[in-house]
Amino acid sequence: MIVTSRNGQPDHLQTEAEISLKRLLPRLEAFWSEEDVASGLAREFTQRLVAQWPRLFRLLFTLYHKRYDFFYHLEEIMFTAARGWKQRSPELREQDDHRSNDPTWFQSEHMVGGALYVDLFSENLSKLRECIPYFKDLGLTYVHLMPLFAVRPGDNDGGYAISNYRSVDPRLGTIDDLRQLADEFREAGVCLCLDFVFNHTSDDHYWAQHAQAGDIEYQQYYYCFPDRTVPDQYERTLREIFPTVRRGNFTWHDGMQRWVWTTFNSFQWDLNYGNPAVFRAMLEEMLFIANTGVDILRLDAVAFIWKQMGTNCENRPEAHLLIQAFNCLAGIAAPGLVFKSEAIVHPDEVVKYIGVEECQISYNPTLMALLWESLATRSTRLLKKSLSHRHRLPHGTSWVNYLRCHDDIGWTFDDEDAAQLGINGYDHRQFLNNFYTGQFPGSFARGVPFQHNPTTGDMRISGTLASLAGLEQAIEFHDPKLIEMSVRRMCLLYGITLSIGGIPLLYLGEEWGMLNDYDFVQDPAKAGDTRWIHRPKMKWEYLQNFHQEVEDQNGSIRGKIFRSIQRLISLRKNLPSLAGQQMELIPVDNPHVLGFVRHFEGNRILILANFTEEEQHVPANNVRTGGLGRFFQDLISEQEIATHEDLVMQPYGLLWLERI
Q1: pLDDT: is 158 or 41 the higher one?
Q2: Would you tell me which of 87, 388, 424, 517 could form a disulfide with 536, CB atoms 3.0–4.6 Å apart?
Q3: Which residues have CB under 8 Å from 639's CB, separation 6+?
């Protein structure tokens, strides 16, 4: 049968897909029989495979059709997916069914996330299970565990130099401990998120070890060159990610007598996705991780996964095709799995990774950066400019809104957005760097530089939420008023991330206002990376005594911060208007105040936020027309508000207004 395309011409690719599937299905049937897979399970997989095959074939053909062995790899990829489905537990398959019937489950107002390093928060996975009641008490419904797989000794880039994707770091536990944790999370209604570090492996990974031993097949898993000819050609258009650590993107390996592509660190070897064997091998690792009970996979460093000579090797079209192919195969072999994109790149590039067929959810680095920008400038102009055309996402997708994470803060706003407001992007970044390292007069922040490049002036910021928001300075000065202002800043920022549309994510420890940890320099493996300053070790006495802290009406700082965030989370989870992604800015005749409306299925709420330490007035008409009413209740303070006179907002005030 000849299939025609939209323009009436023969669609040869569709025809080739049909012919290939016709050849492969008998082999798949033989596989099911050999593996003694129940007919019902085999039928479910096959139905999804047939439905997704045209899309999958196009993606893989586009990437790999020039390979002489394309059909061999196509078949191996199919078998890898089939084995992944066979190994999936009955509980996960049942969850797959539920999520297939509710594909936007992650857009619920009940979704509230937290992120942590297991060793820093609870020492190991067994003790982390004991923290489930704490997570539920705080209100979390998904927890992201930073990289916990086996890593190289010494410096391992905070867990992102993985030696084995199927073994947990023995200091944290075992793979069975991870499975048990996932099971208990599922029973408690908590989703599990893990990282999928798929741009590179550690230099001591099994594949890298074989490459170093001279195995040509595994050397083709990476980018290895006998001399500088090709690397120098690439370097002409590449940028340096960590220029203060090392220069260039290639590392000489004495044993192999070859240069190896190492974008991030010399011990992190970039994988060669131009080789379909690498795609199939990483698919197998991905499905293994998914089958431990993971709900969400954070795709690390997505911008870098495809290399092309003459480009900066970032955000290539093929990178999107690769992720879409992983997405398609996950939909066949692990349908309940969701992808989270980590792309700390230009805002125009970030959104390209977001889609039902690519990454269903994504970090929102621009919102994070501009919330801090608004605090520093006491102005919401640039924030509003960005939100006016950068917040909307495709149907069925969601932002992950965060204030701090394990990484640094880069000022990822769009220079054109800034220029339209008369702001010079380069100069403004220098101001923000000075402000958040405490060098600007009147700054309340206590951040430290990360990767400062004196030649270009480029710099990013490290620091905990509390230290950046002024709590560290306030405690140093023993000033109750400054302490109050810092706590208000934190609550203001969280009030926005919890309400603006998407999944809010806390970096755990923030709920207690944990400060910078300057002792990281005592560990040689961490001393050269200032990001460890905002990765403090959770103090167990905080958890052991947190009920007393929270119930202390005299107001310990930690208890006050915890109570405030806990209450905002509880409010969010009872407001259907905060489901989904729909957000509309409202005109507010005050540059210091941000105003927006959230609505979902007939429910509506108006959010107002004052970004200054001074009282601010909001015209009554802005409230009336934005909220579509004359009388409102502020759900946070439980006070009624009328619109017969201008609204007075307290310093760093936050209002969630519902019409009454």
Answers
A1: 41
A2: 517
A3: 633
Task: Give dist(CA 120, CA 142) in Å, integer.
Answer: 18
pLDDT band at 534 (very low <50, low <70, confident <90, very high): very high
On whether the pTM is more than 0.85, the answer is yes
Backbone dihedral region for residue 476 (phi beyond 0: left; psi -120 to 50: alpha; all else: beta): alpha
Question: Residue 272: what are its φ and ψ, rounded to 5°?
Answer: -95, 95
Rounded CA separation 154/443 (Å): 36
In the three-class reduction of DSSP (H, G, I as helix; E, B as strand; rest coil), residue 460 is classed as: strand
3-state secondary structure (DSSP) of residue 560? helix
C-alpha span between 604 and 234 (Å, rounded): 52
- Give pLDDT, residue 2: 42
What percentage of the chain reaches a pLDDT higher than 90? 90
Across-strand partners of 641?
632
Given a cut of 60, is residue 3 above it in pLDDT? no
> How distant is the alpha carbon of residue 386 from its chain centre?
19
Q: Which of 416, 386, 411, 414 is nearest to 399 (CA)?
A: 386
String of DSSP letters for 186-200 = HHHT-EEEEEE--SE
**Among 272, 352, 262, CA closest to 316:** 352
Residue 475 carries which DSSP code?
Answer: H
Residue recorded with tokens 């994988």: 271
What are the residue numbers of the active site? 300, 342
**pLDDT tens readout for residues 14-27:** 999 999 999 999 99
Identity of the amino acid at 92: L
Backbone phi and psi for residue 472, each to the nearest 5 degrees, phi listed first: -60, -45
Where is 146: in which H helix or E strand? none
Q: What is the pLDDT confidence band of residue 543, given thresholds at 50, 70 and 90?
A: low
Percent of the chain as helix, strand, coil, to the nearest 5: 45, 20, 40
Query: What is residue 344's predicted lDDT score, i.e. its pLDDT?
Result: 81
C-alpha span between 105 and 359 (Å, rounded): 15
Residue predicted with more confidence, 9 or 153: 153
**What pLDDT score does 1 carry?**
41
Which residues 6+ apart lie within 8 Å of 261 measured at CB? 222, 223, 231, 234, 249, 250, 269, 270, 307
Q: Please measure the distance between the N-terminal and C-terminal CA atoms of the chain and give it in whole angstroms.
A: 63
User: Do 605 and 624 form a contact (C-beta atoms < 8 A)?
Assistant: no
200-202 and 258-261 beta bridge pairing: unpaired
CA separation for the pair 205, 193 (Å, rounded): 23
Give which of 62, 47, 76 is closest to 17, Cα–Cα.
62
